[in-house]
Amino acid sequence: MLNVPTWTTDRVELLKNHFEAGLTCREIAASIGVSRNAVIGKLARLQLTRGPARAEPRPTKAARERSRKSIPRLQYKILQAVYENAEPLPEVAITSERRCSLFELSNQRCRWPIGTPGAEDFCFCGDTPVEGMPYCTGHTRLAYRPGSRQRVARAY
DNA sequence: CCCTGATTCGC
DNA sequence: GCGAATCAGG
């Protein structure tokens, strides 16, 4: 493969002329025989734009990654910690001394529902939650069972 | 959904 | 420098 430079002088000339003529980037790209992104990229490097640049520069990819992934990462860490001392889940119900009503729920009460909604004895676990989680340790392990998602997905 | 131009960043 | 991936906006 010969290494033909993409942006030869005449191609750049074509690019500029087509741009002046008001062709869209896609049309310019088709005319020259390159991708639309190539045209857009080259125009950007030539400082050629049609409208005023956007006021707010995009946050860096790193920043976007951070804000997008930080919460899932954190929760993954928490779950890791919950499963750190992994024993088989007990078959017996997880009991709580602190059962509470819907209105007594808070960030400091396990939100695991117990019983049938609407029933007289319906309530919530109410125990102290794992930090950053909506459930206590036992119910966190019940709620996030490894592999359960896949099994459920296949069932549908 | 389709499209557009603009920006970032790994190559 | 290049352009794919990704973005915001229409």
UniProtKB/TrEMBL annotation:
<dbReference type="InterPro" id="IPR011681">
    <property type="entry name" value="GcrA"/>
</dbReference>
<dbReference type="Pfam" id="PF07750">
    <property type="entry name" value="GcrA"/>
</dbReference>
<protein>
    <submittedName>
        <fullName>GcrA-like regulator</fullName>
    </submittedName>
</protein>
